[in-house]
Amino acid sequence: MTEVPGVDPLITETADRLFSQICDHESIQNAEATGEASEIWNAFAETGFPWISVSEEFGGSGGALLDALEVLRLVGYHAAPIPAAETGVLGGWLLANSGQQLPEGIVTVLPSGSEDLLVARTGDRLTVSGRGLRIPWARIAQVIVVPVELDNQTFVASVDPNDCKITPMTNMAGEPRDTVDFNEAEAVAAPAAPDLNLEAFRFRGALSRAALMAGAIEKMSQLTVSYTNDRVQFGRPVAKFQAVQQHLVWGAQDAALARMAAESAGREANRGPASFEIASAKLIANQAAARATKACHQAHGAMGMTQEYPLHHLSRRLWSWRKEYGGDSEWSAWLGRIATSQGADGLYPLITGGSSALN
Amino acid sequence: MRFTPTELTQNELALQQEVRDFLHEELPPGSHDPCLGMAARKDKDFSLKMADRGWVGMALPKEWGGSDRTAVDRFIVVEEMLRWGAPVGHHWVADRQTGNVILKFGTQEQRERFLPAICRGELGFSIGMSEPDSGSDLASVSTKAEATTGGWIINGTKIWTSGAHENDWFVCLLRTSPMEDGNKHAGLSQFLIDLKSPGLEISPIPFLDGSHHFNEVTFNEVFVPETNVVGDLGMGWHQNTTEMAYERGGPDRWLSPFSTVEQLLREARGTQLEITTADLFGELTARWWGIRNLSLSVARLIDTGEAPSVESSLVKEMGTRFEQEVVEKLVHLIDLEYSPDSESLFERLLAQCVVTFPGNTIRGGTIEILRSVASKGLKGLPA
């Protein structure tokens, strides 16, 4: 019997306990108002969790990608308002894979890479100009990492946020997604490892969001089951009504589907090429988020539309994350090219074999 | 509720390859019109060939003619057969559920009599649950079995009985003692009934497209010997519920339109249609990959000795709705006036999907009933 290799149960337990203790409704609400959650971040950083899967050689915590993704799943589950993905699985990964040391604090990443920027090279230094959009928590980051394609080569550049003009912006959940004006900002840069390019970074970003989304959908589904079992109308819990049961079942299915997809993609990425699984997992998470938010909100009635009830911490994140690192059409188009190029006889082997069925 | 990711071992992958080779040999692509899922043609010769390979009743013990294989092994064989559109109709019910029921609840004599024959692919079974006045409220069945010397006398009517006109045996849920107040699940028992029994009358109920699957089966003083009671008297409801767990959540609940989609890709090659539908292929491939992983994890759970009834209900509810969604997306995207008589196999298959797939969310328990089963199991999960 084959099980997922090694999600360390201690990681699940510790991260879940940590967030249960410090990441409550009030602190999430507060983070939205102020743009940061230093208490939550400090407690999280204390454990070394942000840097799991980044080699110790470069200042990370070591360990497997699968464990890092499990932490992200729990970040999503608890709607923790912190740049967990950016610091480790994305930014830390970029830095370590270009032989650079990680700073001690928060790292963030320009999601689109250098596509819209002007990058000039003088010796081993780069200067970055232009406007970078939707950079998570740039306002409190120690370093902004920018993956750069230059002369057919990929570099990982890091810029000091103090050298940039930062305009605070948010996503629909009130998480910082800042606009950053780089004005000939000096960057430390190093060539990336051979298999790291902007496309690989895109997939990595999608994988991080799939893990976060799987956690958020699961929590949303559980909240909905418990709310509808507590809420009494017509003399009985509303969960007893068939029309409501439909929403509960649909929410639970999408939670199971998104988690299965994210974990399967994580397992594949943990050991090698996983482009098919990651693309599928992000598309599944996007669509599951759309369906599940609808079902869970409907089952909650008016209560789910209030700020005092926590459903919106999850649903607003899901609506935002759905569009980050690839929306529905980007991934279905990518998968469509892969699927049709297999031809009719190769279609089912692709479904069963995934990336290993691709050359 | 927890779906744990799993993957196929080397031995399981070898079985998958063996099944694919078998299908290439027996039903080369282009040589047959694919069947749409479990409502497949009955082809006894094909069933016998599968049985030769040990793929019918394969999870049953060797001592009864089975192969002692796992639920995952059976999943692999079923999955490949269905995605190929193979004619698995003859042995379908026996392989999926009746063999299990007889193994679990049957007498030694019943096991000897039925299991080896099931594993040889010889016997076809029908399922006798619904009645004219008992559908989703199955516990209200009223077809009666009354004790007589050496056996039972049966009177009443079963309905929607697939394949009764072609099969050999009928597993029926019957009332053996009157309904009690407050416990409608008591007093039901399961029987094995020879479909050729005197007094048993089979009348066709034509399917909406004119084809013959459904029947009404009327019992008029039908004698059934004592030795054909399955399990304990009065335990029929429990046995029946166990049986349902075997029939839910497998590949038959999400693969039915696959041959249609595959055929579209074959016919659209190099045409404008391929461009129009490319994104849809991407989306469907991802969805199938995700649902398959859930369904496979249920099979793996069964192999650890669990009865994952909530998980399998969730997968069946989702899978059958997905089957309909696939068809709707094809219809939406493709501007063709597809016809059941078209020269194009894709068009014929699509027409068949459109007409017959409304039944997918009804057969074996409507999705409304499944939601009720599943939602009870969702309560009280750890946050």
Order of helix and strand elements from N to C terminus of chain A: HHHHHEEEEEEEHEEHHHHH
CATH fold title of the largest domain in chain B = Butyryl-CoA Dehydrogenase, subunit A, domain 3
Number of strands of chain B: 8
Low-confidence stretches of chain A: none
Which fold name corresponds to the CATH topology of the largest domain in chain A?
Butyryl-CoA Dehydrogenase, subunit A, domain 2
Architecture (CATH level 2) name of the largest domain in chain A: Beta Barrel
Q: Sum up the overall morphology of chain B in one term.
A: globular
Q: Please, how many helices of chain B?
A: 11
Mean pLDDT over the residues of chain A: 95
The low-confidence runs of chain B, each spanning 5 or more residues with pLDDT under 50, are: none
CATH superfamily of the largest domain in chain A: Butyryl-CoA Dehydrogenase, subunit A, domain 2
N-to-C series of helices and strands of chain B: HHHHHEEEEEEEEHHHHHH
Write down the CATH class of the largest domain in chain B: Mainly Alpha
Q: Biggest interface and which pair forms it?
A: A-B, 53 and 55 residues
Sequence of strands across the biggest β-sheet of chain B: 1-4-5-8
> How would a textbook summarize the main sheet of chain A?
7 strands, mixed
Architecture of the largest domain in chain B, according to CATH?
Up-down Bundle
* End-to-end CA span of chain B: 12 Å
